[in-house]
Design brief:
Elements lengths: L1 E8 L8 H13 L4 E8 L4 H11 L3 E5 L5 H14 L4 E5 L8 H8 L5 E3 L4 H12 L11 E5 L2 E4 L15 H4 L1 H10 L1 E4 L2 E2 L16 E2 L2 H12 L5 E4 L8 H14 L4 E5 L7 H10 L1 E9 L3 H6 L6 H13 L3 E8 L6 H13 L4 E6 L18 E2 L7 E3 L5 H19 L4 H11 L4 H12 L5 H4 L2 H6 L25
Parallel strand pairs: 1-2, 1-3, 3-4, 4-5, 8-11, 11-12, 12-13, 13-14, 14-15
Antiparallel strand pairs: 5-6, 6-7, 9-10, 16-17
Length: about 500
């Protein structure tokens, strides 16, 4: 029996699908007579080319991994594959699949798809494969699996996961194809933990408990990766430094290994201290990603985040002083956040120091709490367009487009600047330290196809500029109000 797992990567994403190789490793451990192959394509590749490759595999089972950027194409692949063959068993999985989704249930009812998996795939996929091996029927009741039973779509209940994830084998232990990818690219992806202890309502990880490999297992896995001699290891953990003690032990182990490596990870700035930052530097961490998202207190409360801005600033300064590049993420269009609120967040980030600033427009994701709680907020979004919001009560479609134009200017003229110190000095001295005043000037200069009235004039921004220090340096306003104890 042969299973092919299909990855349609975002056109701008170059890493291999670690999650599918994790599925392959788990199935190989538990099912003796099963061939599992992982096949990757760019989402923008011609559909006929992808279908030709899939047909050439002659697989008994096809698994389609659905993300926000590729769900619609995967559904079309399922329809086209079914039109070619009634015998193939087609499974939908990935974070874009949710229980009760109308389009998924229609595909189950009309026979296009045989099963749909919500959440982590290892155990459900094993039960599905075992059912097929016993005679082709997959029983209803498998946790987090939807199937058609007696003409009705039935979904299994919620699973109870083990807190320690050592039951999941390392994909690097015996997958030659994955080891060859690491050898060719020099990059190894690694997942030391799953889930997240925080409850951000916009994120589909917010409802999943944090679970980790044991420290013994993490060291064993890293040793296997070291043996492949990669130049870079990317930790896929939602927050690498959830436990400072755990993080420091991992960093010390990497340092003791003695190889020249570059490490990438997403961290929570409030959980960094001087010792951790120094260990990061010694371990080869060249850059970290920080998810700030917003500085507006009401918005942070609604999305169940609390940012300790004093500690954020202190941590960013420590990271910069240690030579670690800091990338700060914000989200455009969060609940209750207007264009001016988002611009204030950008200026706050700029005020932290020499950081790169990235912004993406809010997506209303399946399985995220925000999707169940958006009534009355005026959100409109299109599932066929990656679930990106088109407007909200606080931001019109024009406001969202203007925010995206500002972000383009930030990307081109700040993030990619070869002389940030000079540019920062100019912005501080001439523009009250407001990066968004600089980007407004650029947009007016370029036109950008936007109504000049919406871009506002330099005098408008100066008239509304907040207080500055004696040196003319912009001081971001401290976000007001109490924040929830549930954090980033």
């Amino acid at each position: 029996m042969k299973l092919v797992l299909i990855d349609l990567a975002d056109d701008g994403y170059n890493a291999y699908p670690f999650g599918l190789y994790a599925l392959k490793a788990y199935l190989r451990l538990h099912v003796a007579r099963l061939t599992v192959e992982v096949r990757s394509f760019k989402c923008g590749a011609p559909l006929d080319d992808i279908l030709a490759h899939i047909e050439g595999e002659q697989a008994d089972i096809i698994g389609l991994s659905c993300f926000v950027w590729n769900e619609q194409k995967n559904l079309e692949i399922a329809r086209r594959v079914r039109a070619l063959s009634d015998s193939r068993f087609i499974i939908l999985g990935g974070p874009q699949i949710e229980k009760g989704a109308a389009e998924v249930e229609r595909l189950l009812i009309d026979g296009t798809v045989n099963a749909a998996v919500v959440g982590e795939g290892e155990i459900p996929l094993l039960h599905i494969v075992e059912g097929i091996a016993r005679g082709g029927a997959v029983p209803s009741g498998i946790e987090n699996v939807g199937v058609l039973a007696a003409g009705v779509v039935r979904w299994g209940g919620e699973p109870t996961y083990e807190k320690c994830i050592d039951y999941l084998p390392s994909p690097y232990a015996d997958l030659d194809d994955l080891r060859q990818i690491v050898a060719a690219t020099g990059v190894a992806l690694y997942e030391s933990a799953r889930g997240c202890p925080y409850l951000c309502t916009f994120c589909d990880q917010g409802a999943k408990a944090f679970r980790s490999h044991s420290m013994e297992r993490i060291k064993k896995d890293l040793s296997e990766i070291f043996a492949l001699a990669p130049r870079k290891i990317v930790f896929l953990d939602s927050t690498f430094n959830v436990s400072p003690a755990r993080t420091k032990e991992i960093l010390r182990f990497i340092i003791a290994h003695g190889h020249e490596l570059e490490i990438e990870a997403e961290v929570k700035p409030e959980r960094c201290d001087q010792e951790m930052v120094e260990l990061m530097r010694m371990a080869g961490i060249k850059s970290v990603e920080l998810g700030l998202q917003s500085t507006k207190s009401q918005t942070l409360e609604f999305i169940k985040r609390r940012n300790n801005f004093e500690r954020v600033a202190a941590s960013v300064q420590m990271l910069i002083a240690s030579g670690i590049n800091v990338y700060i993420d914000t989200i455009i269009g969060l609940p209750g956040e207007s264009l001016s609120d988002w611009l204030a967040t950008i200026d706050y980030c700029f005020g932290l120091g020499d950081v790169a600033i990235f912004s993406s427009t809010l997506k209303i994701l399946p399985n995220a709490e925000l999707k169940r709680d958006i009534q009355g907020m005026g959100f409109t979004y299109d599932t066929a367009r990656s679930c990106v919001i088109q407007r909200s009560d606080a931001m019109s479609a024009e406001d969202l487009e203007l925010a995206r134009l500002h972000q383009k200017m930030i990307k081109l003229f700040w993030n990619r600047s070869s002389d940030r110190p000079w540019l920062r000095q100019m912005i501080v001295e001439k523009l009250h330290g407001r990066l968004t005043l600089f980007t407004s000037e650029l947009l007016q200069l370029l036109g950008a196809g936007t109504d000049p009235e919406r871009l506002k004039s330099r005098q408008f921004w100066l008239d509304h500029a907040p207080a500055t220090t004696g040196a003319g340096r912009y001081v971001p306003p401290a976000p007001r109000g109490r924040h929830l104890k549930v954090l980033s």
